[in-house]
Design a protein that fits this description.
- The protein is built from 12 helices and 20 strands.
- By secondary structure, it is of the alpha/beta class.
- The chain folds into 3 domains: 182 residues, Rossmann fold (3-Layer(aba) Sandwich), CATH 3.40.50; 114 residues, Rossmann fold (3-Layer(aba) Sandwich), CATH 3.40.50; 109 residues, GMP Synthetase, Chain A, domain 3.
- Strand 5, helix 8 and strand 6 form a beta-alpha-beta unit.
- Helix 10 packs across helix 11.
- The longest helix has 17 residues.
- The chain starts with a helix and ends in a 5-residue tail after the last strand.
- This is AMP-dependent synthetase/ligase domain-containing protein.
- InterPro entries: ANL_N_sf.
- It comes from Cadophora malorum.
Length: 431
């Protein structure tokens, strides 16, 4: 895992840099002072004795103009939104030096993902509205010493215009969300076109499911699919791509980050192949500290000593329909099982709405087929068989029957500012 992570996880004395950070934060951040009120302030506590951050309290304390998380006034740097796939985006604060460090880490991630001298990079991330992905990748490209050409296309163009720019500019590398890549692939394949000149598709911000890979690979037959970076605006750059064949494999971005995998959400493990919540401590974030902060993902160690881990997806995103709970990962499995999909499910989304004073679950499926009625019945039957409680509540009139829609990827609810596809959309009105 690197020197810092290895020492801490073995329970030995913490390195001075981390000790200094913890002392500084405990002295200057009102939020962490409260969270750590039972932790000794003399530097004797190991990292795993510090409480894990609870997201709700952290973000409630981190208001835009009166943050109790910050260790001091924010007088120079940048404010960015985070949380583009949730219904409540938040803000995060960086100093100039922290922003510079973040862009340098992203540059290391780009190199690990396979960029080469003289590549021509189509940046398809979304810009504006205080989101940072486009800007940070502009900075990361500029930080690299190898010669590159940056094509700042952005994410707001139509698929037709994006493809046109990429062709006219002879792009060889694509930076993008997964949703945008799938949309471009669908656009090309509908017209029986391909783009063989793309060498690597580099994605971040969303999971790349195996059932999406087939369609994307058909449209970009010469391209490898690599994780651009594993991280987030709030937590930082956490891991670099570590495999050409498994885009889930990453190496911890040590010494900038300490990454823990906690099966119970609290206590870290070194064991190989044991899934757990990802906890992040970012050594470089002093203004808005990130210490034992849950990334929201599950992962497992592949090689603890080398810091190699496999991202397994989001921590459970629960769908609650009336009194019935089910997670989106299970819903996706039900759909792919019913379809017998071998690898071309373009997109998936669960939508909760209200009708006739009842909650209704609608599954939106990005899949092209000839017999929608039969397939809809197969998916409904599969869910009812897998979750008898769901069927029971439908029959008792407590929730509405399952609805299934087959849509083109362009018709899904996608964030207009980040280009990400939300797996769960809650359309129920509240008062």
């Amino acid at each position: 895992m690197g020197d810092i992570g290895g020492e801490i996880s073995r329970g030995s004395e913490m390195p001075q840099e981390l000790n200094d950070l913890l002392s500084f934060v405990q002295t200057n951040s009102p939020y962490y002072q409260r969270l750590w009120r039972d932790v000794p302030s003399d530097g004797s506590a190991s990292l795993d004795q510090y409480p894990v951050v609870e997201h709700a309290s952290y973000w409630a304390a981190n208001t835009c103009m009166n943050s109790h998380v910050l260790t001091g006034p924010h007088v120079s740097g940048i404010v960015l939104k985070t949380g583009g796939t949730t219904s409540h985006p938040k803000v995060t604060f960086y100093t100039k030096d922290e922003l510079r460090m973040a862009s340098q880490q992203l540059g290391l991630g780009i190199l690990a993902a396979g960029i080469r001298s003289h590549d021509r990079v189509a940046n398809l991330f979304y810009a504006g509205e205080m989101y940072g992905s486009f800007l940070l990748h502009v900075l990361s490209i500029m930080d690299l010493t190898i010669p590159l050409v940056h094509l700042p296309i952005g994410g707001s163009c139509t698929s037709e215009t994006t493809i046109q720019y990429m062709r006219e500019s002879s792009a060889t590398i694509v930076f993008s969300t997964v949703t945008t890549l799938v949309k471009l692939a669908e656009y090309l394949l509908e017209r029986q076109e391909i783009m063989p000149g793309i060498r690597v598709l580099m994605f971040s911000g969303e999971a790349f499911y195996e059932d999406q890979r087939s369609r994307v690979s058909q449209a970009f037959p010469g391209a490898k699919i690599r994780s651009l970076i594993y991280g987030s605006i709030d937590a930082g750059a956490l891991g670099y791509s570590a495999s050409e064949t498994d885009s889930r494999l990453h190496a911890v971005s040590s010494p900038y980050v300490i990454l823990e995998i906690a099966p119970d959400g609290l206590t870290s493990t070194k064991a190989t192949g044991v899934p757990g919540s990802v906890l992040v401590t970012n050594i470089g974030r002093r203004l808005q500290p990130v210490i034992r902060y849950p990334s929201g993902d599950l992962a497992e160690w592949v090689d603890y000593e080398k810091g190699v881990f496999r991202v397994l997806g989001r921590d459970t995103i629960g769908v609650r329909v009336g009194p019935v709970s089910i997670d989106t990962k299970h819903l996706r499995q039900v759909v792919t099982s019913a379809l017998g999909v071998s690898g071309d499910l373009g997109a998936f989304q669960a939508v909760i709405s209200r009708a006739n004073m009842r909650d209704v679950l609608t599954l939106r499926v990005g899949y092209r087929l000839t017999d929608e009625d039969a397939t809809r019945t197969a998916i409904t039957t599969a869910l009812y068989d897998a979750r008898p409680m769901f069927l029971d509540h439908v029959q008792r009139g407590l929730i509405g029957p399952l609805q299934v829609e087959f849509l083109a990827v362009e018709s899904f609810k996608i964030s207009s500012t980040t280009g990400k596809l939300a797996e769960l959309v809650d359309e129920r009105p509240t008062v």
